[in-house]
Amino acid sequence: MNIVIGILIPLIGTTLGAACVFIMKKEINELINKGLIGFAAGVMVAASVWSLIIPSITMSSDMDNFAFIPAAIGVIVGIAFMLLLDRIIPHLHYNNDKPEGLKSEKIRKTTMLVLAVVLHNIPEGMAVGVVFAGVMSQNSLITLSGALALSIGIAIQNFPEGAIISMPLRSEGISKCKSFLYGFLSGAVEPIGALLTILFSSTINPLMPYLLSFAAGSMIYVVVEELIPESSAGEHSNIGTIGFAAGFVIMMILDVALG
Questions:
Q1: What are residue 100's DSSP bridge partners?
Q2: How far is CA 42 from CA 21, 79, 246, in A?
Q3: CA 47, CA 138: separation in Å to the nearest integer?
Q4: Is residue 28 part of a domain?
């Protein structure tokens, strides 16, 4: 039961954020938007380090001075995986008129906006899935409280994410209910990804260090490729930096205090 709750916590954050479309009449203020994006980036970087890369290296301690190898390989492969998805999946980032990925004239702008969020929710789902897979395998280095800390941290940064996807859709003329639904669906990929990761990793526990760092590399790619550029574009880039610092510190505290 704890596992089910754990993988659903991030979706709750996205859902609550998407529900802002029912109470907010205008788009999110640009400064607030920058701060929220920076906050999400900070959470993801801290989670990548404390919840994924450090446990990956610790699990490989029997390799002595080469304990970094599984983590390094996993991070590189995770980045390459997200780079491939970024090139294949048609998507459109918020405040950007130029779509990325494979060209497709049949996909609507609203759909591509949702796909952009789905794309960077994939590694978050994998991250949650792999830590709970570690809990299920009774790995002493991954505790239930530590896994829940990761889920809570991702849920916190998913709240602004849900608002960031639903509010622009509303401004495009989509109804409040549909905007909320699209925001919800963009977050639904996380528990699905977490479940698939758990099912996949349950029989290959020896590869856990690689899976942890793979998820970390995937999240780091999203931060560097998407979140940081968006939070620092134009004026007031310092707001994004402040948001990053806040997200990083909060996630670090959660992981250390609960882990």
A1: 91
A2: 25, 18, 7
A3: 21
A4: no
> How many H-runs (helices) and E-runs (strands) does the chain carry?
10, 0
Q: SS3 breakdown of the chain: % helix, strand, coil, rounded to 5?
A: 80, 0, 20
Residue 27 resides in a domain: no
Q: How far apart are CA 95 and CA 79, in angstroms?
A: 24
Cα–Cα distance, 130 to 125 (Å, whole number): 9
Provide the number of structural domains found in the chain.
1
pLDDT tens profile 11-39: 999 999 899 888 876 667 788 888 988 99
- In which domain, by residue range, is 60 found? 2-19+33-258
What is the pTM for the complete model shown?
Answer: 0.86
Q: Which residues contact 221 (CB under 8 A, 6 or more apart)?
A: 78, 79, 82, 83, 86, 123
Which of 118, 124, 104, 135 has the alpha carbon at shortest distance from 198? 135
* Residue 124 belongs to a domain: yes
